[in-house]
Amino acid sequence: KQALVNHAVEFGNREITPAFNDLTKRHGILFSNGDTWKEMRRFALTTLRDFGMGRKMSEGIITKECRYLIEEFEQLEGKPFSNTKAINYATANVISALMFAKRFDYNDPAFQAMVQRENDIILLTGSASVWMYNFFPWLGPFLKNWRELIKNVESNMAEARKLIADLKETLDPEKCRCFVEAFLIRKKQLEDSEIQNLHYHDENLLYSVINLLEAGNDTTANTVKWSLLYMAKNPQIQDRVQEEL
């Protein structure tokens, strides 16, 4: 209580390790602190709720993607298979719909590579050599996993920049379709009103999108995979789940 309540300001910030500091430059939602974190978190929660997070509106996006996922499973005609990639693609598409108002075909090579890099980033971030970087940053050029992590992050950032640039070209303030457009509209409103804008800039947009894509896809996909495994091992639970749905 002394730390988290009575001295919340002093103890409220998140520890940013050297690795995450270099990867995110303290922009975005997950690895920022202070006013930037508060504003980006508030904007993300408000915007995602506006687009249906936790409401009926988001169910349409999820249901639509489920149909594509079922079609993918049906093509295997009951043969044993790993569902990892298909589920990763499905969850990535749901998040992409909220971020970019766009879904990708499961067979799109660029999309497959992007999702694979997202998974690799999560694994590499937890590797021993990357944690060693936190203690000895000067070792970075000599650590294979650190070099691979930087390469994957930069590649996904380049893909995100392209998608953001496409949305900038077609931006219509009267028709907001996704998180990126909501951010761009807010940024333009502040610029037009000449209000000091410390948080709504391109780097915060880019890193916020990357944060939501990578963290959201990994956690959601793993939850779905464990749920399917649990129901496969306990078939009686499937009826209860179907009733709830």
What does this structure look like?
- By secondary structure, the protein is mainly α.
- The protein has a single domain (18-244), classed as Orthogonal Bundle (Cytochrome p450), CATH 1.10.630.10.
- The protein contains twelve helices and no strands.
- The chain has helices at 2-6, 8-11, 18-24, 34-50, 56-74, 84-100, 109-125, 128-135, 144-169, 179-193, 202-233, 236-244.
- Helix 7 packs across helix 11 and helix 9 (144-169) packs across helix 11.
- It is globular.
- The chain starts with a helix and ends with a helix.
- The model has no long low-confidence stretch (mean pLDDT 89).
Secondary structure layout:
Layout: H1 2-6, H2 8-11, H3 18-24, H4 34-50, H5 56-74, H6 84-100, H7 109-125, H8 128-135, H9 144-169, H10 179-193, H11 202-233, H12 236-244
Helix pairs in contact: 5-6, 6-11, 7-9, 7-11, 9-11
List the keywords.
mainly alpha; Cyt_P450_sf; 245 residues; Cytochrome P450, family 2, subfamily W, polypeptide 1; iron; iron ion binding; Cytochrome p450
Along the chain, the helix and strand elements come as HHHHHHHHHHHH
Task: Give the domain tally.
Answer: 1
Q: Quick one: CATH superfamily?
A: Cytochrome P450
Number of helices: 12
Q: Which stretches are low in confidence, meaning pLDDT under 50 for 5 or more residues running?
A: none
Question: In the CATH hierarchy, what is the architecture at level 2?
Answer: Orthogonal Bundle
User: Using only CA atoms, what is the Rg?
Assistant: 20 Å
Distance between the termini: 40 Å
Give the overall shape, derived from the CA principal axes. globular
Structural class: mainly alpha
